[in-house]
Amino acid sequence: MYKRILSAALLFGMACTGPPAWAQALACAPRAGLVTKLEADYGETLSARGLQNPNALLEVFASQESGSFTVLISRPDGISCILSTGTHWMVEPVVPPKKGAAS
């Protein structure tokens, strides 16, 4: 009985002290302004991009000199939000699949 009460109290306590919602941490601004700031302040240029869905373009800006990177998600209305930033960005070479291997 006590184990169940203690377990329930611990789970409830952990749930109450969870991290804040991601939406509060996103920094959004017009894409042109963010790109200009990334280029001027960090020397980052567009490194890769791809469609996440029809309404969201995922973009990675990186600097070969410093290794810093920023991941943006851009909307059709011209607003971009910073999803992540970091250091030690490395570009891995594309390795062709071995002959006979399932692709």
TrEMBL record:
Recorded superkingdom: Bacteria
Assigned keywords, A-Z: Lipoprotein, Signal
Signal sequence bounds: 1-23
Listed PROSITE patterns: PROKAR_LIPOPROTEIN
The protein, known as: Lipoprotein, putative
Organism the protein comes from: Sulfitobacter indolifex HEL-45
